[in-house]
Write a structure and sequence with these properties.
The chain has 466 residues and is mainly β.
Length: 466
């Protein structure tokens, strides 16, 4: 057998582009796949997601990589082996985030502590259901470690009574309900707003949105079991608290209107499954709220308490976050009491393929993306322009038709058009929902100091080259 040099992971990580060579690892072997990048059946952009790192997390997304001939092909590019001294660093016991779970290396990280990351745009529209390991992650605090056998969900009932449910009881006492729903952060596409004027918040690109098949007990069934009526007179709210807490002990919290929580058509879940498996830790294990059609901030993870109140949740994240303001409001004049907390989100869409700045070959170009609207409103059309919005074509929508008012999941769309060498394209998309709401054409009129609700036409500029 040939003898191979040894490399550290740091040395492998320096080779991340064709100009510097593209190295990857599989097991303990190191491969230089630079000459294979353009030959990759999934396209060069997909294989470059693993550049400088391990192939395994990406190969796991596509079953074809398990075929023997793929491993045989890879062996042709072997250039070395990982040094036996390579070992993961010991966790820092003083770090409150030391117990966080491992994450997929392909995620685009916006903050490490707390961990906030989105899937690469190249993979967003590849599947209708987002793989759990690529689902966008929005954490505000360290991820709690929960022992499932000792977990209890507290539901404060009417008259001061309390219902305490174990995970096993939540599974056995209530019928399991499943719903396919898209969750989107209010700050999705915030990076586009920050190019108009600086804003507060994480610099999300277009990936703070994902879709999963959720399974669990209906919140409605649990509240009725706790003794609450179908309706309450006046304004009431269902408040949620998570097990994640700040150093002062204050938990993450949020609330939704009582009518939505009790509505049979709203499909609000106390979810314990995600895409057919138990919830991953980053996504709320063992139980989270899933509120379809509503901003992701209300779908509280690691749920510990449910309470009904005449007031919204007193949590900072309900009272002083996820609210929209006029472009004229700045940090010196903002008054959070003047704006309602975001619940249903406006219509949204984005181009996932091609990526900004790409050079595409002449011939037929396939443009892909996603579209979604809040409140269960169906996306009825996506318009796509290649010339900055002067002329338009209608994209093909993919996905099953949902019942009226319950279109909880996104629509994926695509358009194939001929393009000529030597041209510059400004690809634009805009979605229209069943209420004929449509995205605004530019960011400036909807700019706000928190950078939320960024739903202007999405624009991607590419060049067509031989």
């Amino acid at each position: 057998a040939p003898s191979y040099p040894e490399y550290t992971r740091e040395e492998v990580g320096r080779h991340r582009s064709p100009e510097e060579r593209v190295w990857v690892t599989h097991g303990t072997d190191v491969f230089d796949v630079t000459d294979f990048v353009e030959l990759h059946p999934g396209g060069p952009d997909k294989i470059l997601l693993a550049a400088g790192g391990a192939l395994e997390p990406f190969w796991a997304l596509y079953a074809v990589h398990g075929e023997p001939h793929v491993l045989e092909l890879l062996q042709q590019y072997k250039v070395g082996e990982l040094s036996p001294d390579e070992a993961p660093a010991a966790p820092d016991a003083q770090d409150p985030f030391a117990g966080d779970p491992p994450r997929h290396p392909g995620l685009r990280v916006n903050s490490q502590k707390p961990f906030n990351a989105e899937p690469p745009a190249e993979l967003l529209a590849e599947r209708f259901l987002t793989p759990n390991e690529l689902f966008f992650t929005r954490n505000h605090l360290p991820v709690p470690a929960v022992e499932p056998s000792s977990y209890r969900l507290r539901v404060d009932g009417p008259g001061g009574g309390t219902l305490s449910l174990s995970l096993a009881e939540l599974r056995s006492r209530f019928p399991k309900h499943e719903v396919t729903a898209t969750l989107q952060c209010a700050g999705n596409r915030r990076s586009e707003m920050s190019r108009v004027r600086p804003v507060k918040g994480l610099p999300w690109d277009i990936g703070a949105i994902s879709t999963a098949r959720w399974g669990g007990a209906r919140l409605r069934d649990v509240l009725l079991h706790a003794g609450f009526p179908e309706e309450l007179q006046g304004e009431w709210h269902v408040c949620f608290e998570g097990l994640d807490a700040d150093p002062g002990g204050a938990p993450y919290g949020a609330s939704i209107p009582y009518g939505r929580a009790l509505s049979p058509a709203a499909d609000v879940l106390l979810a314990y499954e995600m895409n057919g498996t138990e919830l991953p830790r980053d996504h709320g294990f063992p139980v989270r709220v899933v509120v379809p059609g509503v901003v992701g901030a209300r779908s509280v993870k690691w749920l510990r308490r449910v309470a009904v109140s005449p007031d919204e949740s007193p949590s900072h994240w309900q009272q002083n976050d996820n609210k929209g303001f006029s472009p004229c409001v700045d940090w010196d004049t903002v008054d959070y009491r003047t704006a309602p907390a975001i619940q249903e989100l406006p219509v949204q869409s984005a181009v996932t393929q091609p990526r900004p700045g790409a050079a595409v070959p002449p011939g037929e170009l396939t443009v892909k993306g996603y579209a979604w609207s809040g409140g269960g409103r169906e996306v009825v059309r996506v318009d796509v322009s290649l010339d900055g919005g002067r002329t338009w074509k209608v994209a093909r929508l993919m996905g099953d038709k949902a019942p009226p008012g319950r279109a909880w999941a996104w629509a994926l769309w695509e358009l194939t058009v001929p393009v000529e060498a030597g041209t510059e394209l400004e690809i634009v998309c805009k979605a229209v929902d069943s209420s004929y709401n449509v995205q605004p054409d530019s960011v400036a009129p909807i700019w706000n100091l928190m950078g939320v609700l960024s739903t202007a036409w999405h624009r991607v500029r590419v060049s067509v080259q031989d």
